[in-house]
C-alpha cells in the first residue's frame, strides 16, 4: 500500500489566480487550482511541460486548466479515441471472423484444390481456435488437401509496423506486427507473439531448457545461454533477430533459479498463423500436400468449410483497455478503415474514420495529430481539453457503460479489473473510485478519466505530462487525482506526491502492463 501525506488545507489565496488556474465558480477557486498548481510544481517536472484540465462531468464547467490546448504526446491515452470510435463505427457487437474455405471439389477423403485460411483482423485468435477449425475439417471426413494452404490476410494492407515505431522494440511484444491473420499465445491476447520459457539446467555447465508456446516450428531457438552455479549471475536475454524468426537466448542463469518467461514477437504473423493451422490439421490427420502461400485473396466462389468468431467488441475492450494492448488498437484501427472505405484496411483510412467520429463527439481532429491507434508512435499529439470533450460526449452514447467498464480502476485487484491502475492510489479516496486510461512512453505520461469528489460530484480530468527527465511522474498524476477525490465544492485537500525513492530507470518508459510479468 502506498502511503500519502495529508497536509492542512491551503489558505484561500487573496491574490489573483495563477496563469495555470481557470475561470470558474468562486467555490472552486478556494483551493483546487492552488492545490494542483502546487503538485505540478514538483521538482520532477522541472523543465517539463503539462496540459491538465478538470471539469464537472455533468455541466462541463471547467474547474482547473493549465495549458489546456497545449499539444503533447498522450501515449496510450490515444487508445481512448480509438476505443470510442470503434464502439461507434464497428458497434459493441462486432466480431472478427476467421474462415476456412475451399475452391475445389471433394472426392472421397480428398479435397482437390487449395485450402484457404481467411482472416479479418482478429487480435484474439488462439492456437486452440485454429485447432477447432482443423477439427471441423477432419470431422467432415477430409484427410488430404491436394493443393496449397493459402493464408488470406488481404483484409488489411501489408504494412506491418506503425509510423515511427522504434526499431529497438522490434522483438518486444507490445510492438508486434499487424496482420489480418495472427496468433495470440495466451488469454492476455498478446497477438503476434510467442511465449519463450527458459529453465536452468540441473547443474552448472548445462544448457538451459527452452519451451515455446504455442508449440511451433515457425520460430527457431538459438540457445547460447549457460547454467551457472546456484547464486550466480542471472544475465539471461531473449530476443528475436531482425528480419527473421530466430530467437536467441544468451547469458547465464543460476541452477535452481526461477524460470524466465518472455513474450517475443514473430516476423510476419500471417505465416505464423498458417504454420499453427497447418500443424493443427496434421494433428487431426489432415495432410496438405502443397506448400503454404500468404497474401493471396480467397476466390469469391470458394465454399466455407469452418468458421470461428471472436468475442464481441464490448468484451474485447476489456483486455484491450485494461492491459493497454497496442495490437488490439491497431487491428481495430485498420478494421475501421476497411469498413469506412471497402478497401484493404490501412492506418490512413482507419485514422480518417476515427477523426470522422471525433467530429461528432465535439473533438476537433484539426487540433490533434494521430498516426496510429495505440499511441506507441511519438508523433501522436493531443491536448487535455480534447480528452475532456471526449469523456463528456461518451457519457451520452448507448455504448458508454461497456466503454466505461473497460477503463482501469484504481486499486481494483486483478488485471482484468484494475488493469494498469491496479496498484495505484490504494488506501486513498481514489481507490475503487477512479476509472481512467493510463499512458506511458519515455518522457511522456498521461492519465485521463472519471472520479467522484467527496460530495459525490463526478469530475472528468485529463493529465498529460511530457519532457520530464525523472524516471516516472505517476506520483504526480496520482496526487492530482487523489486531491480531486478528496475535495468538495468548498475546499481542496492537496495531496503531496510520494517521493521518487525506489523508482528505477525502467519505471516510466513504457506501460507497466507492457512488461511481462506485469509489475504494476
Describe the protein.
There is one protein chain. By secondary structure, the chain is of the alpha/beta class. The chain folds into three domains: 26-91 and 314-514, 3-Layer(aba) Sandwich (Beta-lactamase), CATH 3.40.710; 97-159 and 269-309, D-tyrosyl-trna(Tyr) Deacylase, Chain: A (3-Layer(bba) Sandwich); 193-265, no CATH class. It contains eleven helices and 22 strands. It has helices spanning 26-29, 32-40, 78-89, 127-139, 269-283, 313-322, 326-341, 347-360, 384-394, 400-405, 474-486; strands at 49-56, 62-66, 97-102, 106-107, 110-111, 115-118, 144-145, 149-152, 193-199, 209-213, 220-223, 226-228, 237-240, 246-250, 252-254, 260-265, 287-288, 292-294, 303-309, 435-441, 444-452, 458-466. The strands form six sheets. The chain has a five-stranded antiparallel beta sheet, sandwiched between helices. A five-stranded mixed beta sheet has the order 18-8-6-3-19, covered by helices on one side. Strands 4-5-7-17 form a four-stranded mixed beta sheet, with helices on one face. A hairpin with a 5-residue loop joins β21 (444-452) and β22. 51% of the residues are buried. Residues 1-25 form the signal peptide. Belongs to the peptidase S13 family. Pfam families: Peptidase_S13. One of its GO terms (molecular function) is serine-type D-Ala-D-Ala carboxypeptidase activity. Residues 503-514 have a biased composition (Basic and acidic residues).
Amino acid at each position: 500500500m502506498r502511503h500519502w501525506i495529508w497536509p492542512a488545507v491551503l489558505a484561500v489565496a487573496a491574490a489573483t489566480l495563477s496563469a495555470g488556474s481557470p475561470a470558474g465558480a468562486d467555490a472552486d477557486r478556494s483551493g483546487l487550482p492552488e492545490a494542483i498548481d502546487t503538485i505540478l510544481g514538483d521538482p520532477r517536472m522541472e523543465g517539463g511541460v503539462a496540459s491538465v484540465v478538470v471539469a464537472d462531468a455533468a455541466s462541463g464547467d471547467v474547474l482547473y486548466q493549465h495549458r489546456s490546448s497545449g499539444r503533447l504526446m498522450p501515449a496510450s491515452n490515444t487508445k481512448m479515441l480509438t476505443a470510442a470510435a470503434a464502439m461507434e463505427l464497428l458497434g459493441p457487437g462486432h466480431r472478427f471472423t476467421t474462415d476456412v474455405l475451399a475452391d475445389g471439389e471433394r472426392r472421397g477423403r480428398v479435397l482437390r484444390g487449395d485450402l484457404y485460411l481467411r482472416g479479418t483482423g482478429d487480435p484474439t485468435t488462439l492456437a486452440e481456435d485454429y485447432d477447432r477449425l482443423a477439427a471441423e475439417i477432419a470431422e467432415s471426413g477430409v484427410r488430404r488437401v491436394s493443393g496449397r494452404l493459402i493464408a488470406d490476410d488481404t483484409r488489411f494492407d501489408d504494412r506491418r509496423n506503425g509510423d515511427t515505431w522504434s526499431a529497438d522494440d522490434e522483438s518486444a511484444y507490445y510492438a508486434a506486427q499487424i496482420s489480418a491473420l495472427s496468433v495470440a499465445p495466451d488469454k492476455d491476447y498478446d497477438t503476434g507473439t510467442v511465449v519463450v520459457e527458459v529453465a536452468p539446467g540441473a547443474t552448472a555447465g548445462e544448457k538451459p531448457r527452452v519451451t515455446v508456446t504455442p508449440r511451433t516450428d515457425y520460430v527457431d531457438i538459438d540457445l547460447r545461454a549457460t547454467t551457472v552455479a546456484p547464486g550466480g549471475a542471472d544475465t539471461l536475454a531473449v530476443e528475436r533477430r531482425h528480419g527473421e524468426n530466430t530467437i536467441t537466448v544468451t547469458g547465464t542463469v543460476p541452477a535452481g533459479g526461477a524460470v524466465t518467461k518472455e513474450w517475443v514477437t514473430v516476423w510476419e504473423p500471417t505465416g505464423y498463423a498458417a504454420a499453427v493451422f497447418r500443424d493443427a490439421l496434421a494433428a487431426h490427420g489432415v495432410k496438405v500436400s502443397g506448400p503454404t502461400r500468404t497474401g493471396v485473396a480467397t476466390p469469391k466462389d470458394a465454399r466455407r468449410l469452418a468458421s470461428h468468431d471472436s468475442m464481441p467488441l464490448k468484451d474485447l475492450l476489456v483486455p484491450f483497455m485494461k492491459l493497454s494492448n497496442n495490437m488490439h488498437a491497431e487491428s481495430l484501427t485498420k478494421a475501421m478503415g476497411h469498413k469506412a472505405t471497402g478497401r484493404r484496411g490501412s492506418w490512413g483510412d482507419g485514422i480518417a474514420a476515427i477523426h470522422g467520429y471525433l467530429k461528432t463527439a465535439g473533438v476537433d481532429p484539426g487540433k490533434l495529430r494521430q498516426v496510429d491507434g495505440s499511441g506507441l508512435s511519438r508523433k501522436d499529439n493531443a491536448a487535455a481539453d480534447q480528452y475532456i470533450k471526449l469523456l463528456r460526449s461518451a457519457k451520452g452514447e448507448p455504448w458508454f457503460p461497456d466503454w466505461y467498464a473497460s477503463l482501469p480502476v484504481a486499486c481494483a485487484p486483478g488485471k482484468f479489473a484494475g488493469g494498469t491502475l491496479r496498484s495505484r492510489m490504494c488506501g486513498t479516496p481514489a481507490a475503487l473510485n477512479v476509472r481512467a486510461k493510463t499512458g506511458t512512453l519515455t518522457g511522456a505520461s498521461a492519465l485521463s478519466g472519471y472520479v467522484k469528489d467527496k460530495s459525490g460530484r463526478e469530475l472528468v480530468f485529463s493529465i498529460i505530462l511530457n519532457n520530464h527527465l525523472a524516471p516516472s511522474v505517476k506520483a504526480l498524476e496520482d496526487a492530482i487525482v487523489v486531491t480531486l477525490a478528496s475535495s468538495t465544492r468548498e475546499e481542496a485537500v492537496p495531496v503531496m506526491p510520494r517521493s521518487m525513492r525506489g523508482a528505477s530507470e525502467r519505471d516510466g518508459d513504457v506501460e507497466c502492463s507492457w512488461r511481462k510479468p506485469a509489475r504494476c
